Amino acid sequence: MKGELRAGRLLRRYLESGQPVEIEGVGSMRLGDGDRILFRAPAEPRVFLGYVEEDLEPVRRLCDALRRGGFAPWLDKEQLLPGQNWPRAIERALDLSDFFLGCFSARSVVKRGQFQAELRWALDCASRMPLEETFIIPVRLENCEIPRPIRSRLQYVDLFPDFDRGVARVVKAIRKAMAGRCLKQLAEST
Question: pTM higher than 0.70 for the full model?
């Protein structure tokens, strides 16, 4: 009980300084009229970007384009903090994501390591969702072979030779999927 009161006082002091409090994957709080604490859930779809280190440059470009499109991309190089347990943080980020963009290249399809683990985790997350719901969106950064278990079930998007056209297709897919989810929630609530 004492710890809760101390945490509450600390939260209020921070909010009174004019700073919002952001809780990753949950939302943000700020102080409203009458010193009421206002909570806002994230409005932007959360998009996890899975890739290999060698493809960081085009993935950063994709991340920036998604941010400009009104999404909240999760890129490990921007989100992970020093000393953070990164395997657990990545699993948590994937669990909280609305979408997983698997960024495929000639390097990513043959390299062992974290990208393959993220891809398997994303497939596991997708297996818990309704079949018609979009979660994994494969994107090709260059001409390469998408692994058969992915290409046999999911349509992919090429970000080459026209990056902007490819990003527009990704944005359209995410917006359409989010609209479908909203309509489904509305139907279930009435």
Answer: yes
